[in-house]
TrEMBL record:
Family: Belongs to the ROK (NagC/XylR) family.
Name by which UniProt lists this protein: ROK family protein
Length: 288
């Protein structure tokens, strides 16, 4: 029996799961520690609680922030500052004695929604999460071909305007403490729409999938307002694609990791004898 560890390390919450069939998983969720050492310990303890069968075949998942060229550690991050320049991939490999795939959390979540969630049935979707931070990616035919940073020119341009962190700094209260009737939610919808106009004109997605607590939470940036503003802002003659709520909520990253591994499972017979090197060459093809 194969055993896979899936993870999603966000600015507020971390989710760790175990799957044996790559169709379902058991999950543990906890607050992401500010301390890197405490974070590694918490991930290890969560896996111990899930009691997976050993040996573990592969570990895969995402973390918010900018990764280095080899996708082994964070090099830039505004919230998990103590996690920057720490050997994340190496430490997880040592903890679970298995190869690890590490990517940006929004990229992995995009694959999750494309494969298991609201993006199913579309060949080309743009996924964006608005939560503690903001991120996203373009998925075409099951592969990430562009990222949020490619589009906006940096990780923090739109994040500083519409993220939950930005709203809390502006208003001095948690987003969930601001009533839905407050005009700020419509203001945020319009700001997000300006970004989505860039998405539509640059990426031409069949559908835009929006997730994160600022989108699917309560209160929230309303989908009707986002669609209305985006439609009004698009150039004449450019149609607004379907804009839909993400359906996997806070587990999209786990589903994304599972999606990559499920496809890998179908191809393992072609990779016998070249497991480690072939594995990473194969998985790298899911990301730009």
């Amino acid at each position: 029996m194969q055993t896979y560890i899936l993870f999603d390390i966000g600015g507020t919450k971390t989710r760790v799961a175990v799957s044996t069939d790559l169709q379902s998983f058991k999950v543990e969720k906890f607050d992401t520690p500010a301390s890197y050492a405490e974070g590694i310990a918490a991930i290890t303890e969560a896996v111990r609680t899930l009691n997976p069968a050993t040996p573990i075949t592969l570990v895969a998942g995402g973390i918010r922030g900018e990764l280095n060229a080899t996708k082994t550690e964070l090099v830039s991050e505004k919230i998990l500052t103590d996690w920057v320049d720490k050997p994340l991939a190496k430490d997880l490999e040592a903890a679970f004695v298995a190869p690890i795939l590490l990517r940006n959390d929004a990229e992995v979540a995009a694959l999750g929604e494309a494969s298991f969630g609201a993006g199913r049935g579309y060949s080309r979707i743009s996924y964006h999460t608005v939560s503690t931070g903001v991120g996203g990616a373009l998925v075409s035919e099951g592969k990430v071909i562009a990222t949020h940073n490619d589009l906006v020119g940096g990780p923090h341009t739109i994040e500083d305007q519409i993220s939950g962190t930005a709203l809390e700094q502006q208003r001095g209260m948690k987003p969930y403490e601001i009533p839905q009737s407050d005009p700020v939610w419509n203001v945020l919808a319009e700001k997000l729409a300006h970004a989505l106009v860039n998405v539509v004109t640059a990426w031409s997605p069949d559908a835009i999938v929006l997730g994160g607590s600022m989108i699917v939470g309560d209160p929230r940036i309303l989908l009707a307002d986002i669609t209305r503003h985006t439609t009004e802002l698009l150039p004449e003659g450019v149609a607004c694609p379907a804009i839909v709520d993400a359906s996997l909520k806070d587990e999209a990253g786990l589903y994304g990791a599972m999606a990559v591994l499920a496809t890998l499972e179908q191809s393992t017979n072609q990779m016998k004898g070249t497991w480690t090197n072939g594995l990473f060459r194969y998985i790298a093809g899911f990301f730009k």
